[in-house]
Amino acid sequence: LANESELTAGRLERAEQLTSGLGSEGVRWKASMVTLAKLREDLIGDAFLSCAAISYYGPFTGNYRDALVEDWVSKCHQGGIPCSEKYSLVATLGDPVEVRDWQNFTLPSDNVSTNNGVLVTRAKRWPLMIDPQGQANRWVKNTEAKRGLKVVKQTMSTFTRTIEAALQYGSPVLLENLLESIDPVLEPVLLKQIVVTGGAATIKLGDATVDYDMKFKLYLTTKMRNPHYPPELCVKVNLLNFMATTEGLEDQMQGIVVAKEEEALEKLREKLVLEDAENKGALKEIEDKILYLLKNSTGNILDDEVLINTLAESKIKSNIIEKKVAEAAKTQVVIAETRAAYQPVAFHASILFFCISDLSVIDPMYQYSLDWFITLFQAAIDATEPADPMLPNKQARLLDRMEKINNCVDYMLYCNVCRSLFEKDKLLFSFLLSTKIMLGSKTLNFLHLRFLLTGNSAVDLPKPNP
After folding, report:
1. Cα 235 to Cα 55: distance, rounded to the nearest angstrom
2. What would the pLDDT profile of 158-186 be if each residue is shown by its tens digit?
3. What is the Cα 9 distance to its own chain's centre?
4. Contact of 130 with 243, CB cutoff 8 Å
5. Are strands 127-130 and 150-152 parallel, antiparallel or unpaired?
C-alpha cells in the first residue's frame, strides 16, 4: 500500500506537470486542427496546382504567373477538384522559417522571388535562372557558402575537374554566366542519369564514370535578359525568371536609404530579423520534440519521468522565446513605421533603375548592372545636402531631405548615363527619364503619353456615298 501510495502521489505530481506544460500547446493544437482539416480537404487540388506551377510557370513574369494560377483554380472548381480559393505556392510548399532564412541570405522579399526560392528548392530538375541583375547569384552564394560552394564558368580550364570533385564529395556547384548552350559533358548530370551498382551510386561525366554523392547540388545562372534556349534544353532544367521586380527592388532601395539615413535603426532591424528567424526555428524544434516524445512514449505516460522533465524544460524555453518574439514584434512595428517614411525615395530609385534597364532596347550595348546602380545611389545620398535646419518640424525636414536626395540621384544618374550614350540617344534618354518620373509621381497620364507616341489609332470608317 505504501508503494502504491508513493507511486500514485508521483503520478499525480507528474500529471499536474504534464497538464500545465501542455495546456497552452493544447489550445493552439485545437485551433490548428480546424486549419488542418481544411488543408486536408484541399490537398488534392493544391498538390495538383503545385505540380503545374513547378512544371510550367517558372520562365514567366509575376503578373502572367498570377493569371495562370487564377485560370487553373477556376478550371479546378469547374471540374469539381477541391482546392484553396486563394492558392499560393509558398503557402503550400514553403516553410515560413526557411523563407525567412532565404531573405536573410539576400533573397528579395517580394512574392515572385519567394516563389522562385520554392521552385529552386522543391523541383527535381536543376534550376537555370535568368538573372541579369545578379540577385539569384548572390542568394545562392550566401545560402550555400557553409557547404563549400564551388563557383565555375564553362570557359574555365578546371571546369570539368571541379564538377567531377563536387559530384564525388557532394559539394554544391554554381555554374554562372551561361550563354545559350550548355557543355554536352553535363547532359548526364542534368538528366540525373545515376546508376546504382552494388549499393554505390555512379554517374557518367565525359568519358569517365565517377561516384555520385546524393548531397550534390547544381545551380545554373545566366546574365542574358532574354535568352533563347532550345526546347531540348528547357526540358532538362527548371527554367526560372529571376529578373528584379519593382516590389523587390523597392524594398532593397528602402533598406539602403534607411541604412544611410538611420544607420542604428537599420542595424537593429537586421539584428531583429536574424533573431526572429532563430527564435521561430527554435520554437518549431521544441514543438517537434514534444510531439516526438509523446508519440514514442511507451507504457503509462505518467511513469516516464524523462518525458515529463523534458516537457517542463521545453516549456520554460518556449515561454522565454515567445516573450522575445512578442517584444521583437513590437519593436518591428516602430521600425516599419520609420522605414515607411523613406518609401518615396525607394520608389523613385526603383523607377530610375527600370528606366535605364529599358535602354538596352535602343542599343544592346547600353547595359547597366544593379550593383553599379546601387553604388551610384549610395554615392548620391552621401553627396546630398542636409535638410534645411530652419524648417519647423521633423516631418518637414524629412520631406526636404528626401526631395534633395531624389534630385541629386536624378542628376548623378543623368550625368553618368549620358557619358556612355551616343549623342543621338541623349535626347531620347532625357525624354524617357522625364516621362518615367512623371508617371511615377502621377503628374502625367499614361493615356496622354500613349496618344502622344502613337497618335489616334482609331480607324476612320469610309463615309457613305450621298
Report:
1. 9
2. 999 999 999 999 999 999 999 888 999 99
3. 54
4. yes
5. unpaired
